[in-house]
Amino acid sequence: MTERPSKHWRDGVAEEASKLAAGTLTVEDTFMADLYPASLLDATDEALGAFESALGTLRSPSDDEVFAAVQRVVLDLNAINDQHDHSGYETGEREELCQYIDEALTDRGIDVPALMARHGLGRYEITDKWRDW
Predict the structure, then answer these.
(1) Domain total of the chain
(2) Distances (CA, A) of 24 to 27, 30, 31, 75, 77
(3) At what angle do helices 5-22 and 91-107 cross, to 10 degrees?
(4) Contact, 70 vs 101, CB < 8 A?
(5) Tens of pLDDT along the chain (133 residues)?
(6) 130 lies in a domain?
(7) Rounded to whole angstroms, how far apart are CA atoms 109 and 111?
(8) 95 within domain boundaries
(9) What pLDDT was estimated at residue 98?
(10) Does residue 133 fall inside a structural domain?
(11) 3-class secondary structure for the chain?
(12) How far apart, in whole angstroms, are the C-alpha atoms of residue 113 and residue 125?
């Protein structure tokens, strides 16, 4: 399975904390823990884990089943973003999350371009119908 964006974010927080502890970074130069609070990381991991589990249960999924799994994770991420004052996922995070969803589907054997073409949508529009972040 593709690597979750939240892992990259968590690694960045840890690296910054390590540099701060080592004295190679000042408090004034830190931002990662504010950008990615534990509550955001934990909730995002939970939502992405549920998405991965849902994908794992699909056997020869119909388009409707795939869209239902995508809808569920997007709605979960919407709620998480709302809980973080609509600033949990900025442009970079949005792109990473959308890429993750695409890659997770592809890893599961779903032909995302064909799926989207069957519905008259572009490949990267898979989250657009439900996404608020």
Answers:
(1) 1
(2) 10, 11, 15, 40, 34
(3) 130
(4) yes
(5) 799 999 999 999 999 999 999 999 999 999 999 999 999 999 999 999 999 999 999 999 999 999 999 999 999 999 999 999 999 999 999 999 999 999 999 999 999 999 999 999 998 999 999 999 9
(6) no
(7) 6
(8) yes
(9) 97
(10) no
(11) CCCCHHHHHHHHHHHHHHHHHHCCCCHHHCCHHHHCCHHHHHHHHHHHHHHHHHHHHCCCCCHHHHHHHHHHHHHHHHHHHHHCCCCCCCHHHHHHHHHHHHHHHHHCCCCHHHHHHHCCCCHHHCCCCCCCC
(12) 10
The pTM score is 0.93
Q: How far apart (Å, rounded) are the C-alpha atoms in residues 68 and 46?
A: 17
The answer to whether residues 131 and 72 touch, using CB atoms and an 8 Å cutoff, is no
pLDDT of residue 17: 95
Tokens of 107: 């890893």
- Kindly state whether residue 103 falls inside one of the protein's structural domains: yes
Instruction: Read off the amino acid at residue 28.
Output: E
**Do residues 41 and 9 touch, judged by C-beta distance below 8 A?**
yes
Which range marks the domain in which residue 78 is found? 5-125
Q: Do the beta carbons of residue 41 and residue 93 sit within 8 Å?
A: no
